[in-house]
C-alpha cells in the first residue's frame, strides 16, 4: 500500500476504522477521530492536560487583570455575584463540551462537533461558520490577554519612575515582544510543554493563595462587609439589573475558556477519558480560586473611586497599592500576575494555533495549503502559529491598548466563542443527540436535551446582553463595538463561503462516514 500523505484525510474503510480510534494502518500511521493521520505527539497525560487547562484559564489572574470591565457595574458585590453567575453559566456550557469531547475528540473541537450535531444535510455549512466564529473569538481572546501582562510591565516600571509618562507606543512594543515570545515558546519548546504546563500549574496554585494571604493580612484597614457584599455601587447609567447583567462579562472573561484543551485532543493517548476531566478541573478550580481571590481583592479596596478612575489601562495596581501600602509589596504581587498571565498567553497561543491548523486541514481558510502543514520534528503547526502571531500583532497596532479596545476584544472573545458553542449545542438539543456517538461521559437521553436547551437559551440571552453599551449615555469611548464587529465577521465568513469554501471546503469526518456510529465511540487504550 502506498504511504499515506501526511496531513491529508485518510478514507475510513471498514478495515481501517472498525477497530479503534486512533486507527493503526499498514504503514504505521494512526488515523484519529478527525479522519487525519496523527502528526502531533501524544505526549500529554491526565495531570499535564489538566495543568494546561488550568494554566490557560488561570481564572483568578485573568479576573484581577480584567477587573476594570465590571468594577463599575455594581462595585464589589456586583463583581462577586457577577462572577458566580458566570461560573454557573459556564458550568452548563462545560457539561455540553465535556460530552462532545468524550464522544468525538478532535483538534477541531467545537468546529468538528458543529459539523456533526446538525446532521448530514446542514452539518457542513454550520460547522464552517462555527469554525470561523470560534477561531476569531480565540484570536481576539488571546490578543486581549496579552494586553494584561503588557500593562503590568508598564505599571511595574512606573512605580519606580514617578516622572514616567506612558505613551501608546510603549504598550504596543511590549505587546509585540510578549506576543512573539509566546509564539516562539510554542514552536521551539513544544516537547517540553507538558512539563512547563505542569510547572505553571504549581506557580498558579501557589501564587493564588500567596496573593490572597497578602491581600488579607497586609491592609491596615479592610473594607466593610457591607461594601463587599451589600452596597451595590452602579455608575454605568444603566438600571441596577441591567448593569449587573452587563457586568457578568468580567466573570465570563475570567472563566470562559472551557474548550481550550479540546483543541489538543490529538495530543493525548486517551482523549475521550481525560478531556472531560480536564474541562471539569478547569471550571471547578477556576471558579473556586477566582472567587476566593475576588473576595480578598474587594476587602483590600479602601478607595473605590481611585480604582475606577485609575489612569492606567487596568486598576489592579491601584488595589494592590491600597492593600500593601508599599511599592515593594505592589511590585511583588504584580510580578506574580505577570508570570502567571504570561504562561496563560503561551497556552492561548497553543490553542489558537491548533484551531487554525484544524480549519486549514479542511480547506476552510485562505492559504490552507501552507497553514495545514505541521512540522512533525517540532510537533507543532508552525505556519498556523506564526500566522496567528502576525494577525495578533496587527490587532495590537489597531487597538493600542485603550480601555475601549480591551473591552471590545474581551467582549468579542466571549460572544464569538459562545456563539460557536451554540452552533453545536442547539442542533444537538433539536436532534436529541441522535448524531453523536456515546462516549465515556454522557448526559443521557433524558437529562442531555434539557441541559442543551437551557444552555442554548442562556447563550442567546447573554450574547444580546454583552452587545449592549458599557454605560449610558453612549459615547465613542463607552460604545460597545461588538454590535459592529460580530456582524462584520459573519459577513466576511459568508463571503468566503460563497467565493471559495462552498466548493473547496471538505469538512471534518462525521460519524456517518463510518459503517456505524459505534466505530467513533471506540478508543485504543495505549
UniProtKB/TrEMBL annotation:
InterPro entries: AA/rel_permease1. Signal peptide: none annotated. GO terms for molecular function: transmembrane transporter activity. It holds the Pfam family AA_permease_2. It is found in: Membrane. The chain crosses the membrane at residues 89-114, 135-157, 169-189, 201-218, 238-257, 278-301, 333-357, 378-398, 410-430, 450-472, 478-499. PANTHER family: AMINO-ACID PERMEASE BAT1, CHOLINE TRANSPORTER (EUROFUNG). This is Putative choline transport protein. It comes from Exidia glandulosa HHB12029.
Amino acid at each position: 500500500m502506498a504511504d499515506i500523505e501526511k496531513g491529508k484525510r485518510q478514507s475510513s474503510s471498514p478495515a481501517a476504522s472498525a477497530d479503534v480510534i486512533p486507527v493503526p494502518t499498514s504503514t504505521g500511521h494512526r488515523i484519529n477521530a478527525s479522519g487525519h493521520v496523527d502528526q502531533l505527539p501524544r505526549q500529554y497525560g491526565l495531570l499535564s492536560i489538566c495543568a494546561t487547562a488550568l494554566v490557560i484559564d488561570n481564572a483568578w489572574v485573568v479576573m484581577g487583570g480584567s477587573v476594570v470591565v465590571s468594577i463599575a457595574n455594581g462595585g464589589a458585590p456586583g463583581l462577586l455575584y457577577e462572577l458566580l453567575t458566570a461560573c454557573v453559566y459556564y458550568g452548563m456550557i462545560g457539561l455540553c463540551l465535556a460530552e462532545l469531547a468524550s464522544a468525538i475528540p478532535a483538534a477541531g473541537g467545537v468546529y468538528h462537533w458543529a459539523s456533526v450535531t446538525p446532521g448530514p444535510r446542514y452539518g457542513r455549512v454550520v460547522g464552517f461558520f462555527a469554525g470561523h466564529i470560534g477561531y476569531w473569538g480565540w484570536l481576539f481572546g488571546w490578543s486581549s490577554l496579552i494586553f494584561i501582562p503588557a500593562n503590568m510591565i508598564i505599571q511595574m516600571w512606573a512605580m519606580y519612575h514617578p516622572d514616567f509618562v506612558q505613551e501608546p507606543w510603549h504598550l504596543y512594543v511590549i505587546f509585540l515582544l510578549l506576543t512573539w515570545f509566546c509564539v516562539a515558546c510554542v514552536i521551539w519548546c513544544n516537547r517540553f510543554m507538558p512539563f512547563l504546563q505542569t510547572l505553571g500549574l504549581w506557580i498558579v496554585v501557589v501564587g493564588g493563595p500567596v496573593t490572597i494571604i497578602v491581600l488579607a493580612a497586609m491592609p491596615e484597614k479592610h473594607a466593610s462587609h457591607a461594601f463587599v457584599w451589600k452596597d451595590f455601587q452602579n455608575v454605568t447609567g444603566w438600571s441596577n439589573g441591567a448593569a449587573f447583567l452587563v457586568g457578568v462579562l468580567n466573570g465570563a472573561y475570567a472563566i470562559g475558556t472551557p474548550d481550550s484543551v479540546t483543541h489538543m485532543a490529538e495530543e493525548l493517548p486517551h482523549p475521550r477519558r481525560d478531556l472531560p476531566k480536564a474541562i471539569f478541573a478547569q471550571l471547578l478550580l477556576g471558579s473556586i480560586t477566582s472567587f476566593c481571590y475576588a473576595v480578598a481583592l474587594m476587602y483590600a479596596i479602601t478607595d473605590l473611586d481611585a480604582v475606577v478612575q485609575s489612569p492606567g489601562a487596568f486598576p489592579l495596581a491601584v488595589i494592590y497599592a491600597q492593600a500593601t501600602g508599599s511599592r515593594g509589596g505592589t511590585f511583588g504581587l504584580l510580578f506574580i500576575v505577570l508570570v502567571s498571565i504570561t504562561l496563560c498567553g503561551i497556552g492561548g497561543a497553543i490553542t489558537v494555533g491548533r484551531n487554525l491548523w484544524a480549519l486549514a486541514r479542511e480547506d476552510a481558510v485562505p492559504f490552507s495549503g501552507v497553514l495545514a502543514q505541521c512540522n512533525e520534528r517540532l510537533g507543532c503547526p508552525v505556519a498556523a502559529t506564526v500566522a496567528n502571531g502576525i494577525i495578533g500583532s496587527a490587532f495590537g497596532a489597531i487597538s493600542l491598548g485603550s480601555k475601549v479596545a480591551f473591552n471590545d476584544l474581551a467582549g468579542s472573545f466571549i460572544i464569538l466563542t459562545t456563539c460557536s458553542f451554540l452552533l453545536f449545542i442547539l442542533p444537538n438539543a433539536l436532534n436529541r443527540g441522535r448524531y453523536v456517538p456515546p462516549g465515556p461521559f454522557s448526559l443521557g437521553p433524558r437529562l442531555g436535551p434539557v441541559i442543551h436547551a437551557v444552555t442554548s437559551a442562556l447563550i442567546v440571552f447573554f450574547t444580546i446582553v454583552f452587545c449592549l453599551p458599557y454605560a449610558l449615555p453612549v459615547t465613542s469611548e463607552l460604545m460597545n463595538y461588538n454590535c459592529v464587529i460580530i456582524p462584520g465577521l459573519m459577513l466576511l465568513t459568508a463571503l468566503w463561503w460563497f467565493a471559495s469554501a462552498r466548493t473547496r471546503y471538505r469538512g471534518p469526518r462525521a460519524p456517518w462516514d463510518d459503517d456505524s456510529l459505534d466505530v467513533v465511540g471506540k478508543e485504543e487504550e495505549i
